[in-house]
Design brief:
By secondary structure, the chain is α+β, with helices and mostly antiparallel strands. Helix content is about 25%, strand content about 45%. About 20% of the residues are buried.
Amino acid sequence: MSCSDSGSEDLPVGAQGDLASRTLVLESKRFYLDVKENQRGRFIKIAEISADGRKNQILMTFSTAALFSQNLIQFIDFYRDLDSLDPENLRQGELKSEVMYKDDKKYHMDLKENARGRFLKVSETFTRGYSRFQVFIPADGMGEFQHNLGELIDEYDNGDAEEALSAPQNKHLRIENKNFYFDIKRNQQGRYMSISEVKGNFRNSILVPESGWESFRDVLDDYVKQVKEGD
């Protein structure tokens, strides 16, 4: 395993382009961790180049990357406690899984195993449509991967990552054939909750200011109580 990094330290804050890049070699794969910036803010591109030249990549905002890094520590601890791989008795499905929701995206973290070893599959999907992007990180390389990702977040975070770790986590509900996403966000007016209804390519959202959360909850509680009493 090896690592190298580069960066454009003289790039002014607010400019568009690459801020930093690190290269990791994990087993037979090469990974690039690129910190980028555009008009919407800073984000991290994770690219995987396999031995035969195939390329996979996913994108994460800094807030998502911070949650991913935090979850990755838990996966590393879990992996260290596993028994040695037995090629004659492979476990089906995921050894450990986690799902992260961010705006109109969903990220899956799935620790799996096959005859060649154990690996972490990280998938980026959109709640609307069926696009899916994914990378595969060798399990033995998760520690080095998380260490370098964490350093980039610490160095280039402009507050998004720190706020994401301290804020309530996003929630998801599936009711009948609809998906509902609850996201806590902040703008110049303060903190608010975005509630999105997603069905196929249809998406509709409402925004509830923090000052109205308790009143919003009270109305729902009142309706639930009335309906139960009526039944």
